[in-house]
């Protein structure tokens, strides 16, 4: 039972990150951005977007949608970044799902990012690795 839970949890996490990447591609394509670098904190998503995915994978449709955007008339680069280096962007992406569709301009940082920005400014954010 635990293995099934872990597998489904990983699939949901993968789908969430993959759908964020797809959402970013769509937004920037609609804004006619000619060159785009997307930083993703999932090495698995970056590998799939660079190397491909088996058509039998349950989330291959998300990858195919991303590939469609890559083939359009613009330059897109997908890069891996560590989650700790991407915490503010990650929090803003989560926050964006609570907003109405459209363009939102912030004149100051949203409260959801305040603590993370302070940690960045103080250099108190850390990356934990297994030894």
TrEMBL record:
Q: Name one GO molecular function term.
A: RNA-DNA hybrid ribonuclease activity
What InterPro entries does this protein's entry cite? Answer: RNase_H-like, RNase_H-like_dom_plant, RNaseH-like_sf, RNaseH_domain, RNaseH_sf
Where is each RNase H type-1 domain found? Answer: 29-95
Pfam families, per database record: RVT_3
Q: Which domain of life is it from?
A: Eukaryota
In terms of CDD domains, this protein maps to: RNase_H_like (cd06222)
Q: What name goes with this protein?
A: RNase H type-1 domain-containing protein
């Amino acid at each position: 039972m635990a293995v099934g839970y872990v597998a489904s949890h990983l699939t949901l996490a993968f789908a969430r990150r993959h759908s964020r990447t797809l959402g970013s591609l769509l937004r920037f394509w609609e804004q006619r951005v000619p060159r785009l670098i997307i930083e993703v904190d999932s090495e698995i998503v970056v590998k799939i977007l660079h190397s491909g995915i088996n058509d039998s994978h349950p989330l291959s449709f998300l990858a195919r949608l991303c590939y469609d955007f890559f083939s359009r008339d613009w330059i897109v680069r997908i890069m891996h970044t560590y989650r700790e280096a991407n915490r503010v962007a990650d929090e803003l992406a989560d926050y964006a799902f609570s907003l109405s569709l459209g363009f939102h301009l912030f004149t100051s940082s949203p409260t959801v990012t305040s603590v993370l920005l302070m940690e960045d400014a103080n250099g108190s954010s850390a990356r934990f690795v297994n030894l």
